[in-house]
Amino acid sequence: MKAHLSRRYHFSSSHRLHSEKMSAEENIATYGKCNNPHGHGHNYTLEVTVSGRVDASTGMVCNLVDLDSFVEREVLSRYHLENLNTVQEFAQLVPTTENLSIEIFEILQRGFKCAHLERVRLEETMMNSFEYAGGNELRH
């Protein structure tokens, strides 16, 4: 019997949406107020969904303590209260929430083995949320 488990986490980060491949005018036209040279911040809500067989002895898809400690160690401690533009994975990559979702998914995919990672959902604002469930068409 397969079941899904979704768990929510919170972290705060700042970023400036800016591409070195575009002119100042193109950056402003593309990113608008998010291209502010001083950046801006978000209080993100991260939802991680895993799936698997329900263990007959525990009644769980995975141990929440294991999931929580992995997410804390590998994701939250990496991004909480950070300027995403200064984090290594965004040295050559615009730190959009789409790209952040992909990075978080890849971190979880590489390291969390207690259940199958289905997707991550990252809520940036009340109006914007982003989901990523893996795939070959990551970025162009």
Verbal overview:
This protein has a five-stranded mixed sheet with strand order 3-1-2-4-5. The protein contains three helices and five strands; from the N terminus they run βαβαβαββ. A hairpin with a 5-residue loop joins β4 (116-123) and β5 (129-132). It is elongated, with a radius of gyration of 17 Å. It is an alpha+beta fold and 140 residues long. The protein is 28% helix and 30% strand. The chain has helices spanning 24-31, 64-79, 97-111, and strands spanning 2-15, 40-53, 82-83, 116-123, 129-132. The mean pLDDT is 94. The chain has a single domain (2-132), classed as Tetrahydropterin Synthase, Chain A, CATH 3.30.479. α2 packs across α3 (97-111).
